[in-house]
Amino acid sequence: MNALVGLFWLLAAWLGGADDDPECLVLGGLDAARAQAFVSGDTEGLRDVYVDAHAARADVEVLHSYDERGLRLDGLLLVRESCRVSDRSERRLTLDVVDRLGPTTVQAADGHRRDLPLDRPTRRTVVLTRTEDGWRVAAVRGS
Q: Is the pLDDT of residue 8 over 50?
């Protein structure tokens, strides 16, 4: 993927969609770091997203599954339809988020590419915790 296309994917992930609360921009930055980890296949990059290995487990499993099948993402676009803070404290934010996977392409080791199916909007509760390194995702729950 060339640098310009990569920048587009990261900006789209970071900007998200309709953010009702400014704190949702924090999630946009974490989404951009997550997208970069997925595109590069770098499970270590998820340390910049999640508070610990337990919170990152689902993403690590997906990345390992792609790697085992010789697949890598050419881009990851998360389309955020809404985001609002449902609870906040100095060290914790709880966000009510509706998002979906946007246009995303996967490439096999033989160079063959295919688009992943678009999904429907999904409502999630995302809990962010302030750490020494900044905000990190502590939990994601389906609503």
A: no
Among candidate residues 44, 45, 10, the one with its CA nearest the CA of residue 28: 10
Mean pLDDT of the chain: 86
HEC per residue, the chain: CCHHHHHHHHHHHHHCCCECCCCHHHHHHHHHHHHHHHHHCCHHHHHHCECCHHHHHHHHHHHHHHHHCCEEEEECCEEEEEEEEEEECCCEEEEEEEEEECCCEEEECCCCEEECCCCCCEEEEEEEEEECCEEEEEEEEEC
Identify residue 120 by its one-letter amino acid code.
R
**Based on the number of CB atoms within 10 Å of its own CB, is 85 exposed (0-12), middle (13-18) or buried (19 or more)?**
middle
Q: How far is CA 128 from the centre of its chain?
A: 13
Domains with residue ranges and CATH for the chain: 3-142 (3.10.450.50)
Collapsed DSSP state (helix, strand, coil) of residue 133: coil
pLDDT of residue 1: 38
